[in-house]
Amino acid sequence: MSEKKPLLEISNIDTYYGAIHILQQVNLRVDEGELVCLLGGNACGKSTTLKTVLGMVKPKVGKIIFAGQDVTHQNTPARVKLGMAVVPENRRLFAPMTVLENLKIGAYVRGEAAEEDLERVYDLFPKLKERSSQLAGTLSGGEQQMVAVGRALMSHPRLILMDEPSMGLAPKLVEQSFEMIANLHSQGVSMLIVEQNANMALSVADRGYVLQTGRIVLEGEAKELAGHEELRRAYLGR
Amino acid sequence: MSENQVPEELQESAVTEAAKLGIGTDEWVAQHEERIARKKGIKGLPQLINESIPAWARWGVLLLISCAFGAFVDNQYLLRIGVNLGLFVMLSYGLNIVMGYAGLLDLGYVAFYGIGAYGYALMSSEQIGHHWSTWLTVLIIIIGTALLGYIVSLPSRRLFGDYLAIVTLFFGQVFVQLVLASDNITFPWADDYVDITAGANGIPGIDPFSFFGHKFLNIRDYYWLLLVLVALLTIAVSRVNRTRIGRAWRTIREDALAAESMGVMVNRLKTMAFVTGAAIAGLAGAIFAAMQTAVFVSGFDMPLMTMIYAAVILGGSGSLAGAVMGAIVMSVLPEVLRVTNYSEILFLAVLILTLAAVGKSVKRFIFNIVGIAIIGFIVKILLGAASIKTTPTKEWVVGPVSRALSHWMYVPLDRVLWGNSAFVILIVLIAYFTTTTPRIKAILLPIIGYLGIFLWEVRLITDVNTTRQLLIGAMLVVLMITRPQGFLGKARVEVL
Ligand SMILES: Nc1ncnc2c1ncn2[C@@H]1O[C@H](COP(=O)(O)OP(=O)(O)OP(=O)(O)O)[C@@H](O)[C@H]1O
Ligand SMILES: [Mg+2]
Q1: Is residue A43 in contact with ligand 1, taking CB distance under 6 Å?
Q2: DSSP letter (8 states) at residue A98
Q3: Contact A139, A187 (CB under 8 A)
Q4: What is the span of the domain harbouring residue B63?
């Protein structure tokens, strides 16, 4: 592989919710153009890791470097401006606003949404074009997922953070959404993906991390992890 | 086969049925609107108006009517109502930005109106002895109220919902108390006290507006000024609503955290909403003071606040046309209520509408009305049998409606005691009503209706202020049941 340039680097992060210690000495790296997945059981701190990266919660110790800048003390909008975008857990669309408005909000940090950005999203999800004036809250779960991803793409992000993109989708749609992720990856978009569905995630990712009760217990190439005995037993259900 | 397994043939037929209908396909979705059964009668009216007349036409007609009103109406009283309406629309627009768009529950909003009015009064009367030019004064007021809005917005950065409401409520009350107390201030360096605001006495003798040597002596001048301002504001606000700022405001209202994770600078936008709303209210206050030529702090207290909120909520929070409609209702209503005869008719109309709305079907409605009538006769017979003294008819009858009711309603002599008792029972019954089963509700409804009429005839008929508040409350209840999003508001959609 050619030389890697780190895009996101978090080192020795400790995150607390009040007195509860969640993340403990977490180190994680996403290189330019890389697809990294973060695996782990329920409540082990995956979403918390994403929130820490995005600045929704502040770590007590540790350092976050994004695109060559130390963003540890920057707020969320500033980080979004630098090129982070998120597809949140449960999508969190703005329900009473139309699909089009939801997409446009994604471009907020860039100013008014550009027509060609919208076209790009519509190319990826032709369905959204037809539904552009439908209220986001009335979409089906799968359609909402498309809007959430499209919304994240609208800001031309350098790194997309996805929290359980397959949650609540039928098996066929799960497959489709991973195809879409692989597709984005092949276009050079860097991604950090949190997933319960370890099999699927590892099949598209370059590298992966495994989180257990707030600590990274395993990391490596996706192929390596997919063949890892312990991991298989713990998460892959075999 | 287990119980909840669907038989295969059924499953298959459901699939083919869905395929035939095209459920899930884009055409099916595109026809979504048409599949919604059109609501009939009064309930469908707003929908019908909304769909059949384009927005620009509605605004155009409204503008034409307003111009004709200004040009042809000579009656000073009517013109004054028109001016009040204009001020009300401005206030509703401002609150619509703060509450309707950004979703910030600002209960101190009316204080900015008061500050604008008092600011103008202090800079243009003998109170302190300043008579500055209108241009300068208005400019100072707009900037000053905007700055104050900024300061009040600071707590809103950390507070949401009810906490923010309490802080802003406090701000509003501080304004009132400060004005009341500032008629008697002693400074350490002076012997005598200083009177800044004249306290509860208010400030009289305020200069009218004067632009380019033209003094606004006629109420019509203010009418035109307000018409122009409202037109400009309508264009400006609806424009902003369609830009990224407007969108961002609405995302904050829906989900501030999600908005922030999209890069929306939540705090800055909240502040912008507060500042804009405050400046609009401040400007309206200045116009009010100049038009009225006197200000009293009691006019900028909670009663007005509730009226503005009612206007915005009635019309449909987040909708400009709704704000105008709400403002029309709220500024014309008190005038109607000034005449007890009208207020009586209005009261009954609202009561009947409430019963219709709560009952939901014609049968229920008739049941309720007949029930109320029967209860009335029973009460009359019972009270008569207990030989409780009545109030002479001519002492409480104010118009044709109460005259008609006097044949049926038993009004005891001690109206305060009976009225207050009825009030307490009514409140208890309504509280019980909201929690009980449908069957008991059906029985309770006529009783509540009767108590409402009883209370009205015995106590409220002469008390216009209380009646107004009660009527507004009743209207909001009716609306909540029939059209929770407000008359012209968009239906809310929640992700479930
Ligand atoms: N705001 C909060 N305050 C207190 N505790 C929290 C808060 N948010 C999360 N937690 C706790 O932190 C732990 C980790 O939560 P997190 O959301 O990161 O889990 P997760 O790995 O994403 O789990 P899942 O796969 O179920 O989404 C959980 O025990 C959770 O209860
Ligand atoms: Mg999670």
Answers
A1: yes
A2: B
A3: no
A4: 53-336
